[in-house]
Amino acid sequence: VSFGAYPGLRDQSDVLGSHNGSITYGTSVQGRPLQAVELGTEGPRVLVTAGLHGIEWIGIAVAMEVLRLGPIPGARLLVCPVLNPDGVARTEATGGDAPVGALRKNANGVDLNRNFPLPYGARPSRIPFAGAMNPSSATYRGPAPLSEPESRALLELLADDPPHAAINLHSFMGTWIAARVWHPSDWAGYRRLVRAGKRAGAPYRRLGTPVLDVFTGELEDWLHHALGCWAVCMECFRVRESLRQHLRAPTAFARFNPTDPRQLVARDAPAVRAMLEESLTLGRPPLRPGADRMVPWSPAVLTAR
Ligand SMILES: [Zn+2]
Question: How far is the CA of 15 from the centre of ligand 1 (A)?
């Protein structure tokens, strides 16, 4: 099976490990190293993550390009390109041709982007993909918040020195999804970040409103509400391009990743950096009263499905 222009996990890992500023911040369920690189020594931390879902290799490619483009002046750039190496390894082993749920989750079958604590005030949700308590679901949230070594290691990496802003790369949708916020000043901050990404050339739309969005245990909401960090999910690869490609090659890999990533990577990596640079003109989002109290999962909060 060929992944064309995408480097495999081993090559990726070698590049990260040989970098100045290379960090190994934990290990995955199957014992793979969780690797990051920090560039720069002064200013607030700004974070780029990818590979939280094992099938979404285009996000990893964009994160690696952000890193290759070098430090961001006035900030310490922290890049974690492969948050779920076991899922990425399974994608590689299957040639990306398996049910999405099997390639998306970690080796315990947990959707890591539903495994973060829910902010105080989170309500039950019946919206599809909000997260499920059923282990066979593609969005199984795990037995408890931060139950997984991959999500716990990220907490330990960030807790003592929380980032000022984070862009979390996923595919596919062609959208920006900000952390769920309801104060106009927070909302205005996210509007500015997204505008900066658009100006830099990413052709995406912003999705989500304070009313319709829900808390699901996603990384963005936890970063914003628990750590006081601007946090945006950037879903690379537009739906229509994904569909066109998927019709020709009906594998999960072709649905989530452009066959030739080069053009998208060259366009989106500068947009990610522009959003982080714009964040440096904003103060940190204030922690709202009560909003930093993360709630444990319970039947009162979650809808078991
Ligand atoms: Zn994803």
Answer: 23
171 alpha carbon to ligand 1 midpoint, in Å?
6
CA 24 to ligand 1 center in whole angstroms = 22
- Ligand 1 center to residue 72 CA distance, Å? 25
Q: Does residue 198 have a pLDDT over 80? A: yes
282 Cα to the center of ligand 1, angstroms:
27
Ligand 1 centroid–CA 74 distance in Å is 29
CA 42 to ligand 1 center in whole angstroms: 31
3-class secondary structure for the chain? CCCCCCCCHHHHHHHHHCCCCEEEEEECCCCCEEEEEEECCCCCEEEEECCCCCCCHHHHHHHHHHHHCCCCCCCEEEEECCCCHHHHHHHHHHCCCCCHHHHHCCCCCCCHHHCCCEECCCCCCCCCCCCECCCCCCCECCCCCCCCHHHHHHHHHHCCCCCCEEEEEEEEECEEEECCCCCHHHHHHHHHHHHHHHHCCCCCEEECCCCCCCCCCCHHHHHHHHHCCEEEEEEEEEHHHHHHHHHHCCCHHHHHCCCCCHHHHHHHHHHHHHHHHHHCCCCCCCCCCCCCCEECCCCCCCCCC
- Give the Å distance between the CA of 255 and the centre of ligand 1: 12
Overall pTM > 0.85: yes
Ligand 1 centroid distance, CA of 289 (Å):
30
pLDDT in tens, 117-160: 887 766 656 666 778 888 999 999 999 889 999 999 999 999 99
